Amino acid sequence: MLLIIDDDSAIRASLAFLFKKEGFEVKAVGTPTEALEVLRAERPELILLDLNFSIETSGEEGMRLLRQIRAKYPAVPVVLITGWGTIDLAVEGMKAGARDFITKPWQNDYLLQSVRTILNLAQQVPQSANRQRLDQKYQFEHIVGQDPKLLEILETVGRIAPTDAPVLITGESGTGKELIAEAIHRNSKRRVRPFVKVNLGGISSTLFESELFGHVRGAFTDAKSDRTGRFELAHRGSIFLDEIGELDLSSQVKLLRVLQERTFEPLGSSKSRTVDVRVVCATNRNLEEMVAQGTFREDLFYRINLITVKLPALRERPGDIPLLAEAFVNNLKTIYERPALRLSAAARQWLSTLRLPGNIRQLKNLVERTVLLSGGEVLEVDDFQKNLPATPTPSAQGTLPEVGTLTLDEMEYQMIRRAMEFHRNKVSKVARSLGITRFALYRRLEKYGISYDAES
Fold it and tell me: Which UniProt keywords apply (predicted)?
């Protein structure tokens, strides 16, 4: 049974009709007193609560009722209904324990989708993670590992994938956030629809609207023809918004509106378009700290993280390092036509002791570099050690290496490492000192698997 709490009889009737038509049992009440009486008599599966009972209370009565419900009936999920003008109130409600918020005027499809998602998540019971059972039940063939932390994450991914819940994937650079996003899509009901990837860290604020929402011919000087935006390309599928922590505040507002209302206007057009997408975001930054610092909108934060998946660093699951290295070697066998290529037992053991600040990406680069430069078919510890980038000694830092002793990539790696150490991992200062943009530096940090201060 769904319980609708709203002082407007027209809204109560509209919502009741919508959900009854979809097969739900519904009860609708107009006051907090009536709502508490219903709750004392029976337990609803979900509550739809309008925060604004009257103009005078400005949401205070609704917030008070929400806190009472959360205190007495914490297992019952609550979805808030509020106007766009009082979205700050909805954020307060999310802090108080509401599961989602919908703004008026709502879209029926989106409201139904939100309710079904929350009910599906509430009904699913986690099972003990086992790799064989997970592989039989889900499509995780591109994800390598047996560590309990990883298996717990895959269990969560398998449970949330069939829903339309927005997911926020966090973790250090190189931990495999894109692979997890792909797994969510591949195991969802949208699997046959598009999966569109967007690296927000590589899109300037001036191009944000055109890239994500498209533009019409003549919208700006170089707009020679219409362009379809990423959201429209992802219609009925999933969109992966990587590096969402890199968005500036003005772009965050524009993104929030399309996530909230599921409508957008291409740049230069006055005609709204509706889009149906499942949103998966990722970041290596601490969004909660950014919210506290005022650099990331709190309402956007609550909109994207109904479910949060935190990926462990590779050093936290060292037993998976040899498995990943072997998977990379097996893939390179085919690419470079070296069928006898394999890791020695000693190399497998040695690799598991590496710290690998660049995580899976750094390991992959190390393995491929070693395969390319090794003449033997059995990769030994020495082969890998020769291909670990060397950290320059203090006495050698003022001199240039002899020609032929380092590749251009290795020189670039060392220069970036030295700049990072000198500027204490402050990315903005390092980028300025090297004469490149922050985004260009981020790409090189990921390329070489160099860890950095994500809040810099």
Answer: ATP-binding, DNA-binding, Nucleotide-binding, Phosphoprotein, Transcription, Transcription regulation
Q: Which residues contact 85 (CB under 8 A, 6 or more apart)?
A: none
For 361-403, the pLDDT digits (tens) are: 889 989 998 998 888 899 999 999 887 765 444 444 455 565 5
Same domain flag for 179 and 303: yes
Domain that holds residue 98: 2-123
Domain co-membership, 116 together with 247: no
Percent composition of the chain: helix, strand, coil (DSSP 3-state, to 5): 50, 15, 40
pLDDT surpassing 90 at residue 53 = no
Asked whether the bond before 44 is cis by omega within 30 degrees of 0, the reply is no
Write down the residue that tokens 């497998």 correspond to. Answer: 348
- Indicate if 264 and 402 belong to the same structural domain: no
DSSP letter for 31, please: S
The total number of structural domains in the chain stands at 4
Residues with Cβ within 8 Å of 48's Cβ and at least 6 positions away in sequence, in order, are 2, 3, 4, 5, 6, 15, 78, 79, 81, 115
- Spell out the alpha helix ranges (H) of 141-286: 148-160, 177-186, 208-213, 230-233, 249-261
Q: How far apart are CA 110 and CA 131, in angstroms?
A: 34
What is the average pLDDT value for the chain, to the nearest integer?
Answer: 87
Look up the CATH number of the domain holding residue 435.
1.10.10
Does any domain span residue 128? Answer: no
The CA distances from residue 272 to 110, 251, 315, in Å, are 16, 18, 47
Is 433 within a domain?
yes
Note whether 154 and 279 are same-domain residues: yes
Query: Distances in Å between the alpha carbon of 356 and those of 7, 232, 285, 450?
Result: 58, 38, 19, 9
Nearest to 415 by CA among 395, 400, 437: 400
Q: Is residue 136 part of a domain?
A: no
CA dist., res. 2 & res. 164, Å (int): 19
Residues 36 and 49 placed together within one structural domain of the fold = yes
Using CA atoms, how far apart are residues 196 and 237, in angstroms rounded to an integer? 8
User: 49 in a domain, yes or no?
Assistant: yes
> Of the candidates 345, 366, 386, which is a domain's last residue?
386
Same domain? For 7 and 114 the reply is yes
**Interval 152-209: pLDDT, tens:** 999 999 999 999 999 999 999 889 999 999 999 999 999 999 999 999 988 888 889 8
Contact 320, 144 (CB under 8 A): yes
